[in-house]
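Lab notebook, bench 4. Continuing the backlog of folding jobs that were queued last week. Each job is logged with the same field layout so the records can be merged later without manual cleanup. Today's entry covers Chitin-binding type-2 domain-containing protein, a 97-residue chain. Filled in by technician R.K.

JOB TYPE: sequence-to-structure
TARGET: Chitin-binding type-2 domain-containing protein
LENGTH: 97
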Amino acid sequence: MEVAVASLFSRTVACAALVLAGVVAPATTSQAATAPVGFECESEGFHGDPDEPQKFHRCVDFGDGTFTQFDFWCSPGTIWDQSLTTCNHPWAVSPGQ
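JOB STATUS: finished
OUTPUT FIELD FOLLOWS
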């Protein structure tokens, strides 16, 4: 149980650090409510959105065998770079990602 709590804490801190650093911006309630359902978590980790280059998702398994999905938007002027699992300038992202 202690290991699961520590892991959950470290994942939460990592996501919060990205938001606080300005690297990512979490989706607002209105964005989440109006966004089409085009992505579903199938594995843990960070995943780019298939329909929105500026959007990505964080999929977390909190130990119950299901995934909780957190939706994020890259900062203005950047898009998701799957090879680096971070937002990047469009000119620096390899085509076809």
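OBSERVATION: The first strand starts at residue 24 and ends at 26.
SIGNED: R.K.
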